[in-house]
From TrEMBL:
The chain crosses the membrane at residues 283-308. Residues 1-21 form the signal peptide. This is Transporter. Keywords: Membrane, Signal, Transmembrane, Transmembrane helix. It comes from Salmonirosea aquatica. It comes from the Bacteria.
C-alpha cells in the first residue's frame, strides 16, 4: 500500500511539474510575426504563437491556427516586417516612395526598385543605389519611332531623421530629341536638317511627414528650360494613406505660383491604389485648372512592378 501511494505521489508530482514547465514556457513566449518554410516548399506566414522542440503553433490568415511538427520544418524566420489588424496580417506598404508620378522623400532601400508604366507609352525604372540615393529614368514611347523621342532622369537623395520626417532633394530632368526641319524658300518645301535636343525639368526639395502606411509631402521647386530658370516656384502637395489591406488613397497636386509672366495654374489629382506585395495599379482623375479653362477631368492609369529585396527593419 505504501509502495502504491509513493508511486502515485511521484507520478502526480511529475505531471504537475511538466504542466507548470509548459505553462511557464507558454507565458514566456511572446507571439511574433514569422514565416515558416516547410521542406516541401510551402510557406506559412502569420503570427507564431508557440515554439517547442516538438514543433510550432502558428495562426495564418487562410488556415487559422495550426500546429506544424519539427520534422516538416526547414526553417523559421521571425520578426518579419508587417503588422496584424483585426487578426489579419498586413504586409508593409511597398509603394510608399511615390504618389502617382511625384516622389515622396522616403527612399528606396539599396537594390530595391520598381518598373512603372503609365498610359502604356510612359515607361520608367527607379532603383535604390544606396539606402539614401535613388536613381530613376525612363522614356515616352513614340509609336512611330520617328521625328521625336522623350527621355527623363529622376535622381533623388534622402535625408531621414529619427522622427517621422524625411527631407529629400531631387531633379526631374526631361530631354526631347526631335528632328529639325529647314524651310527652303525656293522650293517651298521643308527639308530634314538633323536632330536637336531640348532640355526642361524641375529641381525640387520635398519634406515628407509620416511613414510607409500614411504620409504627406510638401515640395517646392523651380522649373528650367535649356538655359532659362522659371520666374516663380512650383509647389507640390501630396498625400497617401492605406485604407485597406490592399487598397490606398492617393492625391498629388501641382500648383504654379503666379508671376508677372504667368497666372496661377494647377494640376489636381486623386484616386485609388490597388496593390499587393509586388504589384500595384493606380486609377485616378487629373484635373487641370487655370483661368479661363472649364472643368476637365482626365483619367489616369498606371501599374507598377517591384523588384529586388526591401531592407528589413532591425
Amino acid at each position: 500500500m505504501k509502495t502504491q501511494l509513493f508511486l502515485f505521489l511521484l507520478l502526480f508530482g511529475t505531471i504537475s511539474y511538466s504542466a507548470q514547465a509548459q505553462d511557464a514556457d507558454s507565458t514566456a513566449f511572446k507571439p511574433v510575426n514569422a514565416t515558416i518554410f516547410l521542406k516541401d516548399g510551402t510557406q506559412l506566414r502569420g503570427l507564431l504563437l508557440s515554439e517547442s522542440p516538438v514543433g510550432v503553433r502558428i495562426r495564418t490568415d487562410n488556415l487559422g491556427e495550426m500546429t506544424v511538427t519539427t520534422d516538416k520544418i526547414e526553417r523559421v524566420e521571425k520578426n518579419m516586417d508587417g503588422f496584424y489588424r483585426n487578426g489579419q496580417y498586413w504586409f508593409p506598404n511597398p509603394h510608399s516612395t511615390r504618389y502617382f508620378f511625384a516622389p515622396s522623400a522616403l527612399p528606396l532601400s539599396r537594390r530595391e526598385g520598381y518598373y512603372q508604366n503609365a498610359y502604356v507609352f510612359v515607361n520608367s525604372v527607379s532603383v535604390g543605389v544606396t539606402d539614401h540615393f535613388t536613381m530613376g529614368g525612363g522614356f515616352v514611347l513614340n509609336p512611330t519611332f520617328r521625328d521625336w523621342q522623350v527621355v527623363f532622369l529622376t535622381p533623388k537623395i534622402s535625408f531621414p531623421s529619427q522622427s517621422n520626417v524625411t527631407f529629400s532633394l531631387g531633379v526631374i530632368a526631361i530631354g526631347v530629341f526631335n528632328r529639325r526641319y529647314e524651310y527652303d524658300p525656293q522650293t517651298g518645301v521643308s527639308r530634314k536638317n538633323g536632330f536637336g535636343t531640348d532640355l526642361a525639368g524641375i529641381g525640387y526639395g520635398t519634406l515628407t511627414f509620416g511613414d510607409a502606411e500614411r504620409n504627406g509631402s510638401v515640395g517646392l521647386g523651380w522649373g528650367f528650360s535649356d538655359s532659362d530658370i522659371g520666374s516663380s516656384p512650383v509647389i507640390n502637395l501630396s498625400y497617401m494613406t492605406r485604407v485597406g489591406r490592399k487598397l490606398g488613397f492617393v492625391t498629388e497636386n501641382w500648383i504654379v505660383i503666379p508671376s508677372q509672366n504667368s497666372d496661377t495654374g494647377a494640376v489636381l489629382s486623386g484616386g485609388l491604389r490597388f496593390f499587393g506585395e509586388k504589384m500595384s495599379v493606380d486609377l485616378a482623375l487629373l484635373v487641370p485648372t487655370a483661368s479661363g479653362v472649364g472643368f476637365i477631368a482626365i483619367p489616369y492609369v498606371d501599374f507598377v512592378v517591384l523588384f529586388g529585396q526591401k531592407k528589413k527593419k532591425k
